[in-house]
Amino acid sequence: MAPSRPDDSPASPPGLETLEIINRLSQLEVLSDWVADVATRLGLSARVSFRLDLVLAEAVTNVIENAYTDGIDHKIFIQVEPITPLLAVTIRDDGQPFNPLDHPEVVPPKSLAEARAGGLGIHLIRSYAQECRYERQGQENQFTILLNSVD
Amino acid sequence: MQISTRQSYDVLVVDMEGRLDSKSSGYSYDEMVAIAQGNTKQVVVNLAQLEFITSAGLRVLLMASKLLKSGGGDLKLCNPNPLVKDVLETAGFDSLIHLYATEAEAVKSFS
What we know:
- The structure holds 2 protein chains of 2 kinds.
- By secondary structure, chain A is of the alpha+beta class.
- Chain A is built from 3 helices and 5 strands, in the order E-H-H-E-E-H-E-E.
- In chain A, a hairpin with a 2-residue loop joins strand 2 and strand 3.
- Chain A is globular and about 45 Å long.
- Chain B is α/β, with parallel strands linked by helices.
- Chain B has a single domain, classed as 2-Layer Sandwich (Transcription Regulator spoIIAA).
- Chain B has 4 helices and 5 strands, in the order E-E-H-E-H-E-H-E-H.
- Chain B has helices spanning 25-36, 55-70, 82-90, 103-108; strands at 2-8, 11-20, 42-53, 74-78, 99-100.
- Chain B has a 5-stranded mixed sheet, with helices on both faces.
- The A-B interface holds A 25-26, 28-29, 32, 46-47, 50, 53-54, 57-58, 61, 64-65, 106, 108-109, 111-113, 115, 117, 120-121, 123-124, 127-128 and B 19, 21-23, 52, 54-56, 58-59, 62-63, 65-66, 69, 83, 87, 90-92, 95-97.
């Protein structure tokens, strides 16, 4: 039986995975390596691991490309918590307020000529997630994505 | 991310290998623009060795397809692994860019 944990306990819940990166696109490699390790530790299937990799790459790229204008390094905090049958994926950053869910739903284009590149990232996140939430907490953006943890 | 090309009859086959994401999309964009501006306008992108793709990678494929079409050519995709194929379908690309199960089918479609 799993040990109970009071809500105010400072200890990390079992299976909680965390990563801290800097707001540079070169850090995406660190992120994908970490996702591979997390997938192994949590015993995720190839499909769930791929989707975790994808939603994190999209969400973190959004932060790196949109949340900062000052040209200096900032930390981005990433957390994956298994809450069976879901994975709660959280991205926190101290950039300017930026809600990715403000982007309107992508309307599938009828032709190549009509197709536009914008909004595909958040479209993929929305498509793969069970739920997405954005909150501004103090000076931080917090974006949470709930993914199925099983196929 | 690696991109290489080879000729198959009158078709240029582009092999993509690795991860096509924001980190590699700049290099991939430049490579695909050079390919689209080359002499062969019939292009098949073989995705068999592509492990991962994000929206940044989708934008590269979309741009290359538009460039080739505007020059009187075409771009076709083949052989994606099931997870990459799922991303292409989720993004609606399967209705914009022809997608074939095998390279042979994709090459043959130009004849």
